[in-house]
Structure formats: structure tokens, C-alpha cells
Write a structure and sequence with these properties.
Blueprint: E1 2-7, H1 12-21, E2 29-40, E3 43-53, H2 63-81, E4 84-87, E5 104-110, H3 115-127, E6 131-139, E7 144-151, H4 155-169, E8 172-177, E9 187-190, H5 201-208, H6 212-223, H7 229-238, H8 246-253, H9 261-270, E10 274-282, H10 283-293, E11 297-306, E12 309-315, H11 321-334, E13 342-346, H12 352-357, E14 360-364, H13 368-371, E15 376-378, H14 386-389, H15 394-400
Parallel strand pairs: 9-10, 9-13, 10-11, 13-14, 14-15
Antiparallel strand pairs: 1-3, 1-4, 2-3, 5-7, 5-8, 6-7, 11-12
Helix pairs in contact: 1-2, 3-4, 5-6, 5-8, 6-7, 8-10
Length: 407
């Protein structure tokens, strides 16, 4: 095994393999068995495992001759490109570990990522008999994120162990199984209030009716799962009776997108995703929002308006907790996309059916009740951190042209 370390520069790999391929009368024929390379902040680490073959393709018995040849190769490479090359016996074939289920991607996110989060994740993986096979950086802005490839761990046990690390360190740790399904996602559904936009529209409307505190208490209880959503929605809408219709325009004009929202949507659209919103809010707000963002679909409740004023009632079917899941399924069917290729993002108890119906449900800055039941959770203030959970690096996001700083 040859291990090359030093400043990364053009030509190192070419120099090494060129020297290995140079055949003289006293040098064995070298076969490459394995190669792994990583560059960390400009520092190269390159590992190469080789074996020697005789002319008829059989391994020679004279290992010292191979080691002597590789030492000469190491000296040539060090002199030519200024890196360090160490040579050691690989000790024969390494037995493959007995797999336990499928490997997993573990994504650690934070701003910043504290060392104790990585240490805790590593200890948790080892504690359940897993192994970290590889680590790569996904992003350094707006959050720092690293992806660990973990083998030998069962899904539920791994999520439980890492959930405890996330709670203790304040970092976000997401877990997904390795496989083509991760990169085959093709549709994303976003909740609106406190997910796509900051704050709750119903609270803004209630403030204009002079009932802000009362409605905020009901909203909080509903999002925490303490009240039936449909019942709480009707109670909150009732206090809006008499408000002029123009108030809806005022609230809509003052909506503030969650940072990273445009980057998330633009990136996924350019990667071929169908993107839309499913909200327990109101079509008078969500439909224009969806149009302005170029979304493919939208579903929400509709406030009844008579003679230019809100009546305090709703029109049509209520988009409640089961209604959100039905809407996701309806849009997936409309575009011919299997549910296991869908993503849902939300923060409240009324999002849970939708989150668990999707192939990947992400609780975004969610209530504890929701975080515990979703597939994974993000507590960063940036919506485009969803892209890292999906496995996209910052370079890939920039290549897709979706980055829009601050939004």
C-alpha cells in the first residue's frame, strides 16, 4: 500500500501511476487493486493498493522485491512533485465486513458544526456496531454540512442513537438509506406558514381584527397537536368575520420568505422536480404566492367572502391533517410520480400525515411533537438546507444555477 500526502497540485497522480507503470528488467508487473483519494482544504491524501504479477499473471512469492520496487517509485515521486509517499505491506486481502442492512448516509449540519457533534455521531455509530466508511463535506454556506457513509447499522437504532446526539449538541443530524431512491426524488411539497414563509398568516389576519393573542394561542395548540386542526381552524376563522377583503392583499404583500426558499425551489426546478405548496392556510394568499414563485401546484383552504368582507366561514373541503396527505398523493398521481419519490417539508402537527406519506418527510424548525415523528428534522433557519439532506453539495447547487443569496 502506497500512501501519498502533501499539498494538492496537478500531476501528482499522473507521476505516481507513471512510475508504477515503468517496467525494467528487475521490476515486477504491478496490478492496481484499490484507489482512494481525498483533498481536505488543499491537502491531498491518496491511497493505492497494488499487487505484483509474474508474466503468467500469478502473484510472485518474492514480496521483498515488490516492496523494494515500490520504495524506488516512492523516491521518484517525492523528488518529482514534492509529496510524501509511504510504503507498507497491506497484509493480504482484507475480509469484507458482514453487512447489517443497507448502508446509510448521515448528514451533520450546523452553523457552525461543533466538534462534539461529529465526535458524538462517531461514538454513536461505533456504539451500535456501525462503521464510518467515508466522510465528505457537502456545504460551507449558509450552513456547514458533512455527509458520513455508515455501514453495519440498523436504521431505527441508528436514528435513535443519532437523535440523542443532535439533542445534546444542537446540531442537525439526518439519516437516509444509501441507494438510488435518494437521488430519484422528483416532487417536493412545502407547507407555507412557518415553513416557506415566516410566521402564520392567520395570526396576521387576527391582529387586524384585534384578536391576535386569542388566535395565537389556538394556533400554537393546534400546531403542537393539542387541538383538532379542522376544529381549531374554524374557531380562528370565525374571529375574522367582518374584515374587509383588502386585508388579504395587505397581509400577502408583507409576507417574508424563509431564507433559502428561492434557492431551494430554483435548484430543484432546474433539476427537474415538480414543486408546490400544500397549506392549511388560505388560497387567497397561497395561490398568488405559488404563481409568483413559478410553482407547479398549490392546495389550501378558501375563506368565504361576501360583499367584499370575510364572513368568518370557509368554502369547500378543509385541507386539514389528512387533507394534506391526500393533496400530496393527488399531485403525485397527477404528475405520474410514485410516493416514494416525493419529499414533504412542514413544521406543524397537521403536516404529520403528509410528512409520513412522502418518501422523505422533513420536519423544518418544527414543534418537538412533530420532530419525533418525522423521517428527519432540520432546525436551521435556512430552507435550502433541505438540499443537503437530499445529498446535494454546494458545488452542485451552484452548477444548477439555483443559488440566490439570502432568499
Amino acid at each position: 500500500m502506497l500512501t501519498v500526502t502533501g499539498a494538492d497540485r496537478p500531476g501528482v497522480t499522473a507521476q505516481l501511476f507513471g512510475a508504477l507503470s515503468a517496467i525494467t528488467d528487475d521490476s515486477p508487473v504491478v496490478e492496481v487493486l484499490d484507489v482512494e483519494q481525498v483533498v481536505v482544504h488543499g491537502h491531498l491524501v491518496l491511497g493505492v493498493v497494488v499487487a505484483a504479477l509474474t508474466a503468467d499473471g500469478r502473484p510472485p512469492a518474492d514480496e521483498p522485491a515488490l516492496l523494494a520496487h515500490l520504495e524506488r517509485v516512492a523516491g521518484e515521486v517525492e523528488a518529482a512533485v514534492g509529496v510524501r509517499v509511504t510504503v507498507e505491506s497491506a497484509g493480504g486481502p482484507v475480509p469484507a465486513p458482514v453487512p447489517v442492512g443497507r448502508p446509510h448516509h448521515v448528514i451533520v449540519l450546523g452553523r457552525p458544526v461543533p466538534p462534539e457533534a461529529v465526535a458524538g455521531a462517531a461514538r454513536a455509530v461505533a456504539g451500535i456496531g456501525g462503521n464510518i466508511d467515508a466522510i465528505r463535506r457537502l456545504s460551507d454556506y449558509p450552513v456547514t454540512s458533512f455527509e458520513l457513509t455508515v455501514s453495519g447499522a440498523e436504521s431505527t437504532e441508528l436514528r435513535t442513537a443519532l437523535g440523542a446526539v443532535a439533542a445534546a449538541t444542537g446540531a442537525d443530524i439526518a439519516v437516509e438509506q444509501v441507494g438510488v431512491a435518494r437521488r430519484s426524488k422528483r416532487l417536493i411539497v412545502l407547507d407555507v406558514d412557518s415553513t416557506l414563509v415566516r410566521g402564520e398568516v392567520i395570526d396576521e389576519l387576527a391582529a387586524r381584527a384585534g384578536r391576535a393573542a386569542e388566535v395565537a394561542r389556538i394556533t400554537a395548540a393546534a400546531m403542537n397537536g393539542e387541538l383538532d386542526f379542522a376544529e381549531s381552524l374554524r374557531a380562528r376563522v370565525a374571529v375574522l368575520a367582518g374584515l374587509p377583503e383588502e386585508v388579504l392583499d395587505e397581509v400577502r404583500e408583507h409576507l417574508v420568505l424563509t431564507p433559502g426558499a428561492r434557492t431551494l425551489i430554483r435548484t430543484l426546478q432546474r433539476l427537474g422536480f415538480r414543486c408546490g405548496i400544500v397549506s392549511g392556510g388560505f388560497t387567497q394568499i397561497t395561490d398568488p404566492l405559488a404563481e409568483s414563485l413559478g410553482l407547479d401546484f398549490a392546495a389550501a383552504n378558501t375563506l368565504e367572502v361576501v360583499d367584499g368582507r370575510l364572513t368568518g366561514d370557509l368554502v369547500g373541503e378543509i385541507v386539514d391533517r389528512p387533507g394534506k396527505a391526500r393533496a400530496l398523493a393527488r399531485f403525485a398521481e397527477q404528475y405520474g410520480i410514485p410516493l416514494d419519490q416525493t419529499v414533504a417539508v412542514g413544521d406543524g402537527a397537521n403536516d404529520l400525515d403528509m410528512l409520513n406519506t412522502a418518501g422523505l418527510g422533513i420536519a423544518f424548525n418544527a414543534k418537538p411533537f412533530v420532530r419525533e415523528q418525522a423521517h428527519t428534522a432540520l432546525n436551521q433557519p435556512y430552507l435550502d438546507a433541505v438540499l443537503q439532506v437530499l445529498g446535494f453539495s454546494r458545488d452542485e447547487i451552484l452548477d444548477a444555477g439555483g443559488h440566490d443569496q439570502g432568499t
